[in-house]
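Exercise 7b. Backbone tokens:
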């Protein structure tokens, strides 16, 4: 039996999808280069429940992979994955497709392919879907889906008699800021 070691090797589905994009191939190669080393994952039992703790190096790798990712939540209304994906693509008008993941507690994770679209989504204005405000915030390591609402968020304030194009984020509200403001009002 003769085996041909020529160029007619079968391509993987991933290679076919990424074909023609040197940037995509370079990024994929970098991602594939990550290997768990001895000590990167610590297995233990806490109160009878198995737990895995990852090293700082693994957390840094995850944070790097989550670059250009925002967390969104529609206030006051539940929405399906497909509807959210279609609406976000329409209102943001991204140049490249979004990678949307449906998370617990009506949160969605949206990863952008370029910085322009990412910055526009974060700072382009107050976004609404079906008349409900959309919370848009950058992903952080501290993000958790266990909270019904974020503990701080950027607000957009429109002052009367100013054109809408002049709206801009002027404050970040958090429970601490609310308490400080209420104390000042009581004086």
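Sequence design result:
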């Amino acid at each position: 039996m003769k085996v041909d070691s020529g160029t007619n090797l079968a391509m993987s589905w991933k290679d076919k999808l990424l074909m023609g994009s040197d940037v995509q191939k370079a990024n994929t190669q970098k991602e594939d280069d990550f290997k768990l080393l001895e000590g990167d994952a610590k297995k233990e039992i806490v109160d009878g429940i198995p737990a895995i703790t990852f090293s700082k190096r693994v957390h840094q790798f995850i944070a790097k992979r989550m670059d250009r990712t925002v967390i969104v939540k529609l206030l006051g209304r539940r929405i399906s994955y497909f509807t959210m994906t279609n609406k976000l693509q329409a209102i943001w008008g991204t140049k490249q497709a979004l990678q949307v993941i449906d998370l617990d507690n009506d949160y969605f994770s949206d990863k952008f392919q370029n910085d322009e679209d990412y910055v526009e989504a974060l700072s382009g204005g107050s976004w609404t879907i079906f008349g409900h405000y959309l919370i848009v915030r950058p992903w952080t390591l501290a993000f958790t889906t266990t909270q019904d609402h974020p503990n701080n968020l950027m607000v957009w304030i429109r002052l009367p008699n100013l054109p809408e194009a002049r709206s801009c984020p002027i404050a970040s509200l958090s429970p601490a800021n609310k308490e400080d403001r209420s104390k000042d009002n009581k004086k």
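Instructor comment: Confidence is low (pLDDT under 50) at residues 1-8, 20-26, 175-187. Strands lie at 41-46, 49-54, 69-74, 99-102, 107-111, 127-129, 132-138, 153-157, 168-173.
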